Structure formats: structure tokens, C-alpha cells
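# nightly structure sweep
# worker-07 picked up a monomer target from the shared queue
# config: single-sequence mode, recycle default, output format = C-alpha cells
# input follows
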Amino acid sequence: VIMGYKGIAFTLKAKFEKELAKKKSNFKKGAEMLEESIQKAPENIELRALRMSVQENSPKILNYNKNLQQDKRLIIRNLSKSKSEVKTFVGEFIAVSKSFTDEEKKTYKQ
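# output follows
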């Protein structure tokens, strides 16, 4: 999970870089770290919510948006089985996510 958060930090750092090459490099490094952490813990809904957040908010030109529906399904399937702090974090993400319907947001509201 820590590697996933490090990956998120790199993707955020990319947002504030002035040089295009550094922007791209940081985003790519962050996305790779996040993907690697998900490969190691594929059922971790915290990591899946982090990836959804990045994919929802990254520029379309980066083409990093292929896992939104897969992550959403996994989150819905496993949220009730998660620890309370993870439920709270993911529930707060769902509330602001572009991928969840208003009805789903009501269902998973914390």
C-alpha cells in the first residue's frame, strides 16, 4: 500500500512540473508504482480507489483510464468486507467520484 501512495505522490508531482519531459516522467513513474502495488495486492480496494482517482483526473491524452469499471466492480464487491478505516476512506472517495452514480453514492455513503 505504501508503494501505491508513493506512486500517487509522483503523479501529483507531475501536475506541478513546468517541464513537459519531467511532467511525463513523474506521471509515468507514479502510474507504474501504483500498478505494481496493485499487482502485488489485487484485491486491495484502497489501492483500487487510488488508481480510480488518478484515472478519473488524469488528462485524456495520457490514456490512463482503462481500469475504471474493473476497479469500481471490485470496490463494490469488497467494500463491506473491509476494515472500518478503509471503508471510510473509500466511502469518501465514492462520494466525489465521477464513476459512481448518485444511487451508488447514496448506497455507499458513510
